[in-house]
Amino acid sequence: MSQPARVIWDDALISYDFGPDHPLAPVRVELTMALARELGVLDKVEVAPCAPATDDELAMVHDPGYIEAVKRVSATGRPDLSAGLGTSDNPAFAGVHEASALIAGASLAAARAVWEGTAGHAVNVAGGLHHAMAATASGFCVYNDPALAIAWLLRQGAGRVAYVDVDVHHGDGVQALFYDDPRVLTISLHESPRTLFPGTGFPGETGADGTAVNVALPAGCGDTGWLRAFDSVVPPLLREFRPDILVTQHGCDSHALDPLAHLMLSVDGQRTAYAYLHRLAHETAGGRWIATGGGGYELVQVVPRIWTHLIAEVAGHPIDPATPTSEAWRRLVRERTGELPPLTMTDGRTPEFQDLSGGYDPADPIDRAIMATRNAVFPLHGLDPMP
């Protein structure tokens, strides 16, 4: 990269906290940054602060009335179910607006750095809150920071923005906010909506001229099937779309240990996907890449390791999977969670897959999912859906 990579960070980002029993525990982000620091990953990047998104910035994708409702909840801590705050997924808490606006501001800072050329790549691991809708919180998400980054880029003059979401859950909020905008290509690879929240993301949801792309994968697909699906859909579409900038969401709840989902990937498979996205950013978007975190509810074994791999990939200095975690970090894990920490940065897998050039098996549920997506959207991009 001609420009350095940037990590957007403020210790206050861990104030996005729905309470001690909520799956989205901020300790996962705290442990990620601690591990990245211990392994020297943060020495390879610029760590830059951020400011909260302003009301005008939030209004690029959110209704002003919703923003005001979030601010009222923030001031009192009292629920407002009409705004989606006070549910089990999105409990109300005092300070929710300030915490959510800071995460949004971090993704805006990442977008600004890459668009203005002060950074080649930028990452906000606290971000990726892709379920928030224009006028309601949803799925642990209050303000939709990836969508705000995309909307800001469009206002700056970006002609085409591609968004790739590898969270196990469908990126429904981002899709909804740009569903009819042909300037934005949204691609989401997720567990089938037949078995997982939010119940959307079928291949037939194609948006404006095929710019909404959904790969709905069967439970248990694992590294091999997931990577085959990614390779069969994402690279051809990005090469055809040729975005000015690539935005990616890296929810790591596709891992086998995640308590909320069932795709059964490994850290090694997820790391392989991150490296692939990095290559595609350079091949299709001039190297302009903005990455965010997302879901991920195995707080010790998965999130800190895979997002440390993400930061290292963004930095252009990938970590050897055999690298041991540090003793200082292991002590921190035990102090903060009481759990046994992982000893290395790998699950011991070497992910491999066969691409679609050898044909597809109509009896295989992964290949059926791939072909459902290709048949739905490839012709709309002038691409042949057949291998």
UniProtKB/TrEMBL annotation:
Family matches, as Gene3D superfamilies:
Histone deacetylase domain
* InterPro entries listed in its UniProt record: AcuC, HDACs, His_deacetylse_dom, His_deacetylse_dom_sf, Ureohydrolase_dom_sf
Alphabetized UniProt keyword annotations: Acetoin catabolism
The cross-references to SUPFAM superfamilies, in alphabetical order and at most eight, read:
Arginase/deacetylase
The Histone deacetylase domain is annotated at: 22-313
> Any keyword S-adenosyl-L-methionine?
no
State whether keyword Ion transport applies.
Answer: no
Look up the record and name the pathway of this protein. Ketone degradation; acetoin degradation
Q: According to its UniProt record, which protein family does this protein belong to?
A: Belongs to the histone deacetylase family.
Tell me what this protein is called.
Answer: Acetoin utilization protein AcuC
Species: Nonomuraea ferruginea
